Amino acid sequence: MYSEKLMEHFRNPKNMGKIENADAVGKVGNPVCGDEVYIYIKVNDNRIEDIKFETCGCAAAIGTSSITTELAKGKTLDEALELTNKEVVDALDGLPPIKLHCSELAVDALKAAVKEYLDKRKS
Q1: Which has more pLDDT, 45 or 123?
Q2: C-alpha to C-alpha distances, 75 to 20, 85, 87, 99, 118, nearest whole angstrom
């Protein structure tokens, strides 16, 4: 059902936790399945210097959050905004169709964090 890559990110998630004094936090949830994803970012010179996540959800939700942080770390804010859920799914060697929404949650949380950061900078 799940790829070995997804199971590795579920069993040994990368960048799990909270960043104290994060520059921005993206939070999204799915009321249907109950999954909730928080992504915390620290930005330096327009790049994501540090990124962590907290996810309450299934193996797919945790795995997609983990790989999303790996894909986003070190990217510019513009590059992070261009990340797609297809890239997340591909990086995990696929997801069952019923779990594709998990990749969308992780990417949406990342984009919400970046947008919050950019909005704060405008103020």
Answers
A1: 45
A2: 21, 16, 14, 26, 15
